[in-house]
Structure formats: structure tokens, C-alpha cells
Amino acid sequence: MGIISSGFRGRRRDTNPALPPGQYETESFPVLSAGPAPDIPTNEWEFFIQTETGARHTWTWDQFMALPQQDVTRDIHCVTSWSKFGTSWRGVALDTLFESVQSRYRFTMAHSYGGYTTNVPLDDLLGGKAWVAWQFDGAPLERAHGGPARLLVPHLYFWKSAKWLRGLEMLAEDQPGFWEQNGYHMYGDPWREERYS
Ligand SMILES: Nc1nc2c(c(=O)[nH]1)N[C@H]1C(S)=C(S)[C@@H](COP(=O)(O)O)O[C@H]1N2
Ligand SMILES: [Mo]
Questions:
Q1: pLDDT tens for residues 144-164?
Q2: Distance from the alpha carbon of residue 124 to the mean position of ligand 2, in angstroms
Q3: pTM of the model
Q4: Which of 51, 88, 99, 130 has its CA 20 to 30 Å from the CA of residue 27?
């Protein structure tokens, strides 16, 4: 009997190697927002990166759309335990946006329209690991999911992927954002189950 039950266990979803510990797979795309979704027309949208000198690099929507675009397909993992495999996005790599930015600071705070914040180390935004995404599944990103554009940092829990992204503030030291001040982990690696601190 033991052999049979361990055989069944081997086919359970939670042994799927693509599923981080404590997660289950969903095919739907839940909406999780701490407040109402702001309405940002693209002609009023602006993205900024602010450095220690006070320099503020800004991109209008048209300037942002003129940058090289990338199509990426990644699994995403929400701290509330759902994971969604193979989500498809189009957007601008943070590597591209940081090409014109000089900073010695190694940490960032992502700021959203509406006031949401979340902290991400600079190393986790560079090296092909993060995007400012404006398309999901071939269509403009729905407002509920962060449109016109959101941060996409798929290797960290999804609360780090700030919706309605407005800009990045460079920081000398790591500081907690909205959920991190409310008990979420400062880093949020789903493979180490860094859910809460
Ligand atoms: N601006 C903003 N970004 C946010 C949030 C939020 O409340 N406001 N929620 C975060 C959380 S907790 C998760 S799980 C994901 C949810 O993204 P989704 O609604 O597209 O699934 O967005 C993250 N980004
Ligand atoms: Mo979340």
C-alpha cells in the first residue's frame, strides 16, 4: 500500500518542479489590488527614474514606446499561493531604461500611481530579469492588472510587480514599501518561501 500511495503522491501538482513550495497552479488571472485602480491616460503617463543627485530621467508614453520592446513568457507567483504558468508580456527591459542612468545606489523603490510602493534591489531589475510591461497576452494591459504599464519582476513574488507603475527611486539602503511595512518579506523569493518577515 505504501508503494501505491507514494506513487500517487508523485503525480500531485505540488510536486511539479515548476511550482515553488506552498503554491498551487491556477489558470485564471486573479486581480489583487490594495486600493482602487487609478485611471492614467497614456497622454498623461510618465515614467521616471530618480537618482541620488536628484536627477530625474523621464519618459513620456511615446518615448517609452519608441524604445526596443521585448516579448517574454514567464511563470508568476503570488504570495497568496496561486501561480500562473507561461504568462506572456510585452514591454521594455529595465536594462534598456537604465542605459542612460548613472547611480551608485543599489536599491530601488517602485512608486505607483495611486501611492503603492514596493522595494526591489537594483540587481533584481537588471540582467534580463525585469520589464515595464504594457501588453499581456497580445492585448494592452487591462487597467485592473496595472495598465497602462506595470513592473514585471517574475522571479520574485508578484507583489513586487507594481501595477500602474510611475517610476523608480534609487536608494542607498533597502527600505520597506507598502506590503513590506505590513509584514511581507523585504526580498520575496518564492523558491525560498520568503512570504512574511
Ligand atoms: N500599484 C499596485 N501594484 C500592485 C498591487 C497593488 O495593490 N497596487 N498589488 C500587488 C500584489 S499583492 C499582487 S499579487 C499583484 C497582483 O497583480 P494582478 O492583479 O495583475 O494579478 O500586483 C501587485 N502590484
Ligand atoms: Mo499579492
A1: 999 999 999 999 999 999 999
A2: 18
A3: 0.94
A4: 130
Q: What distance in Å separates the CA atoms of residue 36 and residue 52, rounded to the nearest whole number?
A: 31
Residue among 43, 67, 37 at smallest CA distance from 147: 37
pLDDT in tens, 103-149: 999 999 999 999 999 999 999 999 999 999 999 999 999 999 999 99
Report the C-alpha gap between 119 and 97 in whole angstroms: 18
Alpha helices in the chain, H assignment, sequence order: 2-11, 61-65, 94-98, 178-181
CA of 101 to the centre of ligand 2 (A): 30
Instruction: Compute how many other C-beta atoms are within 10 angstroms of the C-beta atom of residue 84.
Output: 18
Ligand 1 proximal residues by C-beta, below 6 Å: 29-34, 78, 112, 114, 116, 145-146, 158-159, 161-164
Phi, psi of 160 (to 5 degrees): -75, -15
Atom index in ligand 1 nearest the CA of residue 116 equals 1
CA 35-39-42 angle, 5° bins: 140
Does 3.40.50.720 match the CATH number of domain 47-192? no
- 171 C-alpha to center of ligand 2: Å? 23
192: amino acid identity, one letter: R
- CA distance linking residue 170 with residue 3, whole number of Å: 55
User: Which ligand number lies closest to the CA of residue 162?
Assistant: 1
Ligand 1 centroid from CA 120, angstroms: 14
